Amino acid sequence: MANDQLILALSFQRLAYFELKQIEYNSRRLLHHHIIAEASIDASALRNMQGSLNSVEFLVEILMVKLQLPLIHRVTGHVHISTNPKLCYSTRATVANAHRLLYLCMGLDQDVDLKRICIDIPATWEGIMACGILQKQGIATLATAVFSLEQAALAALLNCTYVSLFINELKVHFRQGYVDYENTSHEVCRQIHALYMYMQSSTEIMAASFTSVQDVMDLAGTRHIIVSQRLLYELRSINADAWYGQLGAYFARAPAGDHWETRDWRPLMVSKESAWKLAFARSGFGRNEAKTIQAINYLCDFQDQLEQLVALIIAANQPAENLGATTH
C-alpha cells in the first residue's frame, strides 16, 4: 500500500471544478467565495505574471494554486498542481505553464517551500519531455494519464518523480454502467515495477483510477495509490488480515507464461521521438494511446468548465457573498 509516512494532496481540473462550484449549506453563496474574491485581488497584484493568458485563464491558475497551498501545512509529502492539459502537446508551453504556477505559489506565499510542489503533466511525448526539463531544474513532476510501459519507461529515463498509472480508463467514472472488463492496467502496474527494478529507477508509481476494493487489494504493494472517498470508507471497514482474497495478487506471482523477471526490457529504452511515438501507437494495438487521448479529453473538458465557471463569476460582477447565484 502507499507509504503511510508520505501523504500527497492532489489537484487537477475535475477536483478544482467541483470544489469551486460547491454551495454553502443553507446559503446560495459559493463555499469558497472568499478564495474567489481574494483571487481577483491577487490577479491584479500579480498581473506581471499573466503573460499571454486572458483574465479567465489567469484567474483559473491562481485559484488552482490557492486551493492547494493551504494543504502544505496539513500533509507531509508533495502537494500537486496540474498544468493546463490543453498545452500537453507543446513542451515549451507546458514548461512555461509550470514555471508560472511556481511563480504564483511564491507570489501568494513567500514562505512556500517549492520542493514540496509537484507539477502534474499528461504523459504525451511533449509532456514527458517537459517533465524532464523541469526535473533538471529541481522541480518535482508527475507524468499522469499513463496506461503503458512505453510511457512509464520514458518517464523514468527522464527522471520523473512519479508516474500516475490509471488502472481503469477514465470513462468508467463518467459513463454510467460502463466497465473496462478486459483492458485494465493491473498487469501493466506489476510490469512497471519490474521495469523500474531493472532500470534501478527512482521514479515512483502512483496508481489511480480504481473502481473497487478488489482493485486496491490486488495491487497492494504499489508504493502510492489514489482512491476515492467512497473506496476509503469501504477500506476502513475491512480487516485486511481477514481478506478473502490474496493481498497483492498481481505482485505475488506472475500469470502463466509471463516471465517478467527475466524479460528483456531493453527495447523499451527508447528516447528518439519518432521511434517512441510509433512504439506508443502500437502499444496494446493502439488501445493504450487511445486511453491516454480519452483521458486528455476529459481533462480538457474540465479545464473548459473551470474557465466557463470563472467567466460567469467575472461577468456577474457581484459581491463575493452573492456569487453563488451565478452557478445555477
TrEMBL record:
Domain called Channel forming colicins: residue spans: 262-273
One Gene Ontology term from the biological process aspect of the record: killing of cells of another organism
Organism: Pochonia chlamydosporia 170
Segments crossing the lipid bilayer: none
SUPFAM superfamilies (UniProt xref): Aldolase
Any one Pfam family match given in the protein's UniProt record, by short name: TAL_FSA
Keyword S-adenosyl-L-methionine: no
Name the UniProt record assigns to this protein: Transaldolase
GO molecular function, one term: transaldolase activity
UniProt entry tagged with the keyword Transmembrane helix: no
PROSITE patterns, per database record: CHANNEL_COLICIN (PS00276)
Alphabetical list of Gene3D superfamilies matching this protein: Aldolase class I
Keywords (A to Z) from UniProt: Schiff base
Cellular component terms per the entry's GO annotation: membrane
